[in-house]
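As a warm-up, study this chain.
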Amino acid sequence: MQPAPPEHSVAARTSAEHARERSFASFAPLLTGAAIVVAFDQSSKALIRSWLAVGETWPGGWNLIRLAHVENSGAAFGILQGGGGFLIVTSVVAIAAIAAFLWWAPPQARLFAVALSLILGGAVGNLIDRLTQGTVTDFIDPTHYPAFNLADSSIVVGVTILAVLSLLDERAARRSEQAHGAPSEEAS
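Now compare it with the structure written out below.
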């Protein structure tokens, strides 16, 4: 019987198992956060579908914000109406990409990962609607703005966090370059 090759040694397997456990340990809370978003989103949509008929609003006569049962066959802000197949495919691709990033995200990218888990939960929530209903149920109606839902809100909050973090990272990089005497563009 030949000894196992070095890459299959006990130490290598232990290291690989440790990396997998570490990945799962950091992935599980993010997945749980996304699942909570999906649960609240789907529960709120089910409540609206059972309580209000399509097109019905509550309370009547309010001109600022109200609940309304809207079925949206498009994307955010009513764009791509009837684009169900395209939107399903793009949602699945986005969900897979976000999940992959979350799985392999370095520990220092924790806030980016939290933002992406909000986006993931929102994307899954709306994908569930598209697959089960053919449309997405929207119900928060600011009256002078397109109606939206909790999944949409989660996506917007996640994207906003990503934008702020990106701006802060860019600022920190510039400060670091200035502090370390990086040559300016004028000097070159």
